[in-house]
């Protein structure tokens, strides 16, 4: 939809769906970023008649408290004056509420530095329905504006474009569409009840497909279900339950009362076999369900033949059996115990002497509890099928007949809810004998969750006395008749199923350790993986290189976002999840989990600023802080005591705070001494002797000496000492003993195999090469300090440097300045895609920064391609030199370095290289 009568109409800029904790809330939300255009100058109090028109169109908005915290709060804001983004938020929430969703939370926030641009956010229970509600809310609000103010551009981006929605401008038209979208995405009643019961227990829930397949729990502790079928429901048991004749024979063999019957394949055989059975009879498919193709009360050969024709489309084999006396009951058995009993009454109407059967059915279907299929508590009664017509014909009636007052007219012979029947709770009334028979039947068939269909004249008396028996044993029994019976007490039958899957005390969550920060995330993650593997556990790790299950890389490329984290949490072998959480994923859709056991923010340094509204270090810190704000109440937040921005996060972080600091020993700051003195948790490095010590509950525990960690290069790589402190604090927070942590770190060498692209050292060419992903100023400065500490006394330092093209000019200038400070020869290069910058721009800016720091042009070279820049560095190197490569394509550069052989050069550079003049 795009109506542009105004000079600057509203415009949708972008949208997203937050699925986990995010910058604005811990609740899942839809986010729509809108530029109000000229409407920024037109709050609601300046729009004559708008507020009254909106209230008339949607009077239920009076229930919205808004920020005033009282009923009618939003309407007060509407009359006082608020902006249209805020109005859309409330309309989108209310459309969903009218469609049946329980959504009440929303936020609308202006985007800093962009006048008129707002993030409109609101809760949802179904993503597609939420986005649709957002689009329709804009259209409704737009239609209520004065004609000269109307216009919204790019609304079509909020939906899939399969339907023309541009004409939907009223609440009455919008709500059914959102209701239909919710219905398409909703679980059925049984699955939803199980999901709700799991969530009440704090068990994570993950939907695995568009239907009802659900994962409960994470990693190695996960369980799965589809409706009432669990991952422990056996195939043999399910197949046996589906074969009614085999199941009945098995039950008969152990003394359970069942109906006598035979299995046939033709109508003639059915009639012949019926002669040996006592009338009335039942004809049904051998392996049918939901009462499809079942006919009861049969006495004549014509009725049997007609019933056979109704049954055979559902199964090649058909059962003819004696009809047991009594009323139809469904007994739900879970884990060998009866948890609920319902009497099922077939669909019927009661005449009033004036209305037709069609009219009486219409009245019954008007009950709001009735819906299509299994979506509601009850199912609508249908008169448009052969079964209904046959039953009416047997009663001498048609759909146009007018039954007498009080006359009961049967519309189905089976009592299934799916055919319009009702349920009456009888759980407290079942006789112990009948319950015992149902239990034995479920156990005999082998079902962990079973629906036993029992016919009994009086459920309060034993069927061994009254007659009756088991008709069927059902796998995947529906739960809605027990959850919301038409009469009697509702039974929480989902809870015992979840309790069976996760007995009290059983854990559904694996430890999640989430790490974020500007620099060091990947190395800390690798260290943690090493530590937990040292304890014998299977580790799922995500970082910017890929997804790893122990040593196996199962995905390649940047995997520091929520999609990759979900991959780890779904893996059934993973016992510990170590997840790198980069800013991009947090901004895009939030975290992949509702809470973590340990969260860490390593540092906050200038990087990625000016992107996605994150313009300052304080903005970036707010994004990083989401990780520690999501730490569970009993968890641990690990924070850098040497970073002023992480210091501030302790106030809002979850669980206990564990500080780590390079200023241990005599340099320990006063606030840390106080924290430790009060029994707080901290990991400190003593710069005088290199010792790493963990403090907790007033006791000091030695971890190891920093010089004993190979990745620190005998303690010279201060940034890896700091990374080891963070890893130690995180591992201890997850229950690993300090001695185990120290032993594991002592084997962490940061080789290419262990930690690709992070301080990888190679000495095979007569000169040393260091490969390190130092891609921002602070990371390069830390690497420069290390090089200064270990540089050869007579050799040169040659560095290949670059920076992603989406960084600000200031970062590119800074990279050049830092390069000039620490390295003798500078080889600047472009990144593979330059992220929107023109060719040569990155090299030009870094060269300017280097020259401003006093670096002569003779020390600078520039190359478009990474491989040419690598070749230039390697061919320049002589014995005793130190070459520093900061790659984008880590594996390709490492291979190129290993394969390097001296070659002919041009002006000291690689043959055929495209040199980029330093000044662009």
Structural write-up:
- With 920 residues, the protein is α/β, with parallel strands linked by helices.
- Among the domains are: 10-185, no CATH class; 512-745, Mur-like, catalytic domain (UDP-N-acetylmuramoyl-L-alanine:D-glutamate ligase); 760-910, Mur ligase, C-terminal domain (Protein-Tyrosine Phosphatase, Chain A), CATH 3.90.190.20.
- It is built from 29 helices and 41 strands.
- The chain has an 11-stranded mixed sheet, sandwiched between helices.
- The longest helix is centred in the N-terminal third of the chain and has 18 residues, at 127-144.
- It is elongated, with a radius of gyration of 35 Å.
- It starts with 9 loop residues before the first strand and ends in a 10-residue tail after the last strand.
- Catalyzes the ATP-dependent polymerization of arginine and aspartate to multi-L-arginyl-poly-L-aspartic acid (cyanophycin; a water-insoluble reserve polymer).
- It comes from Brevundimonas alba.
- It is an enzyme of class 6 (ligase).
- In the C-terminal section; belongs to the MurCDEF family.
């Amino acid at each position: 939809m795009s109506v542009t009568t105004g000079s600057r109409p509203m415009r949708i800029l972008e949208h997203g769906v937050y699925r986990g904790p995010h910058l604005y809330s811990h609740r899942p939300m839809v986010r729509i970023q809108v530029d109000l255009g000229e409407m920024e100058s037109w709050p609601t109090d300046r729009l004559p008649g708008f507020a009254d028109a909106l209230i008339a169109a949607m009077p239920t908005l009076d229930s919205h408290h808004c920020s005033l915290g009282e009923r009618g709060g939003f309407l007060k804001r509407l009359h006082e004056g608020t902006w249209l983004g805020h109005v859309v938020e409330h309309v989108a929430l209310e459309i969903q509420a009218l469609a049946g969703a329980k959504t009440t939370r929303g936020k609308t926030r202006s985007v800093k530095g962009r006048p008129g641009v707002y993030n409109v956010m609101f809760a949802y229970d179904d993503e597609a329905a939420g986005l649709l509600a957002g689009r329709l809310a804009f259209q409704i609000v737009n239609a209520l504006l004065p004609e000269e103010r109307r216009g919204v551009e790019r609304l079509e981006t909020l939906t899939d474009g399969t339907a023309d929605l541009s004409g939907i401008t009223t609440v009455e038209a919008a709500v059914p569409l959102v209701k239909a979208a919710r219905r398409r995405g909703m679980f059925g009643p049984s699955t939803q009840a199980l999901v709700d019961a799991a969530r009440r227990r704090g068990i994570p829930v993950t939907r695995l497909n568009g239907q009802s397949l659900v994962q409960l729990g994470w990693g190695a502790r996960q369980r799965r279900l589809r409706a009432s079928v669990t991952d422990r429901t056996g195939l043999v048991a399910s197949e046996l339950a589906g074969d009614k004749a085999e199941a009945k024979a098995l039950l008969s063999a152990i003394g359970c009362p069942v109906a006598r019957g035979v299995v046939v394949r033709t109508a003639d055989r059915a009639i012949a076999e019926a002669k040996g059975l006592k009338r009335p009879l039942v004809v049904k498919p051998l392996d049918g369900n939901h009462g499809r193709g079942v006919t009861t009360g049969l006495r004549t050969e014509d009725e049997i033949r007609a019933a056979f024709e109704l049954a055979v489309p559902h199964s090649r084999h058909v059962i003819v059996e004696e009809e047991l006396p009594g009323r139809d009951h469904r007994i739900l058995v879970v884990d060998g115990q009866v948890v609920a009993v319902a009497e099922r009454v077939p669909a019927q109407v009661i005449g009033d002497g004036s209305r037709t059967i069609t009219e009486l059915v219409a009245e019954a279907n008007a009950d709001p509890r009735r819906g299509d299929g299994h979506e509601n508590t009850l199912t609508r009664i249908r008169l448009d099928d052969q079964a209904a017509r046959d039953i009416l014909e047997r009663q001498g009636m048609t759909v146009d007949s007018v039954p007498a007052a009080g006359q009961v007219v049967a519309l189905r012979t089976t009592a299934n809810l799916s055919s319009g029947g009702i349920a009456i709770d009888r759980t407290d009334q079942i006789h112990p004998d009948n319950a015992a028979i149902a239990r034995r039947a479920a156990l005999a068939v082998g079902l962990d969750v079973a629906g036993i269909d029992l016919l009994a004249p009086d459920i309060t008396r034993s069927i061994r006395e009254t007659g009756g028996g088991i008709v069927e044993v059902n796998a995947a029994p529906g739960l809605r008749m027990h959850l919301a019976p038409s009469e009697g007490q509702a039974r929480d039958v989902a809870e015992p199923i979840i309790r069976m899957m996760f007995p009290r005390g059983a854990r559904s969550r694996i430890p999640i350790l989430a790490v974020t920060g500007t620099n060091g995330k990947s190395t800390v993650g690798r260290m943690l993986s090493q530590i937990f593997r040292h304890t014998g556990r299977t580790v799922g790790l995500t970082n910017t290189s890929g997804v790893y299950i122990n040593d196996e890389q199962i995905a390649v490329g940047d995997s520091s976002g929520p999609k990759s984290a979900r991959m780890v949490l779904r893996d059934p072998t993973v016992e510990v999840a170590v997840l790198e959480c980069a800013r991009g994923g947090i901004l895009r859709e939030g975290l992949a989990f509702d809470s973590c056991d340990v969260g860490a923010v390593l540092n906050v340094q200038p990087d990625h600023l000016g992107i996605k509204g994150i313009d300052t270090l304080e903005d970036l810190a707010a994004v990083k802080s989401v990780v520690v704000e999501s730490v569970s109440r009993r968890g641990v937040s690990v924070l850098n005591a040497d970073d002023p921005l992480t210091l501030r996060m302790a106030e809002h972080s979850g669980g206990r705070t564990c500080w780590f600091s390079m200023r241990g020993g005599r340099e320990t700051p006063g606030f840390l001494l106080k924290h430790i003195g009060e029994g707080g948790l901290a990991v400190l490095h003593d710069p005088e002797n290199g010792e790493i010590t963990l403090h907790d509950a007033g006791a000091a525990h030695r971890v190891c000496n920093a010089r004993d960690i190979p990745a620190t290069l005998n303690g010279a790589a201060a940034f890896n000492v700091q990374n080891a402190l963070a890893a130690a604090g995180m591992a201890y927070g997850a229950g690993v003993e300090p001695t185990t942590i120290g032993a594991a770190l002592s084997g962490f060498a940061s080789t290419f195999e262990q930690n690709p692209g992070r301080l990888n050292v190679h000495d095979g060419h007569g000169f040393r090469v260091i490969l390190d992903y130092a891609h921002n100023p602070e990371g390069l400065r830390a690497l420069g300090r290390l090089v200064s500490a270990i540089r050869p006394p007579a050799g040169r330092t040659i560095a290949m440097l670059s920076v992603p093209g989406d960084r600000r000019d200031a970062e590119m200038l800074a990279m050049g300045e830092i390069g000039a400070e620490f390295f003798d020869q500078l080889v600047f290069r472009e990144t593979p895609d330059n992220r929107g910058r023109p060719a040569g721009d990155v090299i030009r800016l870094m060269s300017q920064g280097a020259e401003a720091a006093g670096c002569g042009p003779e020390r600078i070279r520039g190359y478009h391609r990474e491989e040419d820049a690598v070749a230039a560095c390697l061919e320049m190197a002589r014995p005793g030199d130190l070459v520093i490569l900061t790659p984008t394509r880590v594996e390709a550069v490492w291979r190129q370095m290993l394969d390097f052989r001296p070659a002919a050069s041009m002006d000291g550079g690689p043959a055929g290289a495209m040199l980029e003049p330093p000044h662009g």
